[in-house]
Specification:
The protein is of the alpha+beta class. Helix content is 15%, strand content 30%. It is built from three helices and 14 strands.
Length: 233
């Protein structure tokens, strides 16, 4: 119980409700009681933490790419936060320590610009060769749209990318790969950005090498279709 020392307007010592009074060098102080915070460890919370950790470990490797690729969101969040929310909702599977990304469902770009047509990617000789049909004039597609290309190394949790590897009219682009990546599992993506930098397309996963810890997706596109990243060019 608290004790008033100098009348109703004076300081007090002890606890009164959620307030603690004390005196130091003739100065009266009051402070709120500390709130006991317990580390939440319910099954649902542990599941979400695992999903979030998995997504963040991915997004932090490609932050500059996501700043362009998710720039069109309009809800006040940063582009990276918008990308994180998308991946949490649509691309992460499993729970807690078993949470993994389904790279066929991952987007590294999301927007209103017309996407690539008839696109493919081939990995050989320490590079990725991208090909697509020039669909300029379809929707808002323009010949000068910049091709955004990205390869994520699942073994190393590293990425290389180019934000302007070619134009839509070129129909092809190349992305050099580190020689140390030979034979390692990659997920490869293609998107476009308008010449004025204001609009982007949805990305397309064109290549997805499976790891044993990933979901077995029979429709996988495995070969047919201030940051920890490495931007080339």
């Amino acid at each position: 119980m608290g004790k008033i020392n100098q009348g109703i307007l004076g300081g007090f010592s002890g606890k009164v409700g959620t307030v603690v009074g004390s005196t130091w060098k003739s100065i009266n102080y009051m402070r709120a009681l500390a709130v006991n915070v317990h580390d939440a460890k319910s099954e649902k919370q542990l599941c979400q933490r695992g999903k979030f950790r998995t997504v963040v470990n991915f997004t932090k490797t490609i932050t500059p790419f996501l700043r362009v690729g998710f720039q069109e969101h309009e809800d006040g969040r940063s582009a990276v936060n918008a990308a994180t929310s998308y991946l949490m909702l649509h691309a992460v599977e499993g729970c807690a320590d078993e949470a993994v990304l389904n790279f066929d469902k991952v987007r590294v770009s999301q927007g209103s610009l017309t996407a690539a047509a008839d696109a493919s990617a081939e990995v050989a000789a320490n590079k990725v060769t991208f090909s697509w049909t020039d669909n300029s004039g379809a929707g808002d597609a323009q010949a000068e749209d910049a091709a955004m290309v990205l390869a994520f190394n699942k073994d190393r949790q590293e990425a290389v990318y180019l934000l302007a590897a070619a134009t839509r009219a070129d129909g092809t682009a190349e992305l050099p790969l580190p020689t140390s990546w030979d034979g390692e599992a990659l997920a490869i993506y293609l998107a476009f950005c308008s010449a004025d930098g204001q609009h982007v397309s949805n990305s397309i996963c064109l290549h997805n090498d499976a790891l044993s810890t990933e979901p077995d997706d029979p429709d996988s596109g495995s070969g047919d279709e201030d940051d920890g990243d490495h931007q080339l060019g």
